[in-house]
Write the C-alpha cells for this entry.
Amino acid sequence: MNRGRRPGQVSSRDAVLRAAREQFSRKGYDAATVRAIAAEAGVDPSMINHHFGTKEQLFMAALESPVDPKDHVSAVLSGPREGVGENLVTRFLTVWDSPAGPAGVAVLRTAMQHEWSAALVREFILNRAINPLLAGLGVPVEEASWRGNLVASQLSGLILTRYLIKLEPIASAPHAVVVQALGPTIQRYLTGDVTAELSA
C-alpha cells in the first residue's frame, strides 16, 4: 500500500521551510523565533529540531546555501591584522572557485528575482559573514554598518564580474592577481581610514 503523501499535501518539513523563509525575510534572523516559525507552519516546535536541529541550521536550509561563511571567519582573522583584507579575498576566491561556487551563483540569481530571497541573502551576509568578521576585528559599533556595506559592495561586485557575467580578464585572472588588486581596498574598508565615506 502506498503510504506516501497525497497529491497536494505539504510535508511538515516543507511547511517549516516555507514559514522560515517568510519569518526570516520579514523579521530578520535575530527577531525570528523558532516558536513563531513553528506556529506559522502549524507544527510543534520540536519538529524543527527533528528536521533541522538548530535555528542556525534551519536558516541555512531556508537559504539553500552550500557554504556557511561563518565557518571561515576564524581563518580570515588568523595572522596579522593588516593582512585580513588579503585573507578575506583569498578565502572568498577559494570557496567560490570550488564545487560550491555554482550553487552559490544559483542562490544569488534567485535573490535577484524575488524580494523574500533577497531579504534572506541580506540576513545571511550580515549575520554569517560581515558581522562576525567586524566583531572579530573589534570595529566600533558606530562604524560597523558602513564598513560592512563597503566590504560587501566590493565582494558582490567581484561575484558579478567573475562568476555571473564573467567579465574578462577578471573572470579568469589567477587568485594572486585578484588578491593583490582587491586586498588593499578591502583592508582599508575593514580597518583603515574611511572618514571621507562616513562623513559624506
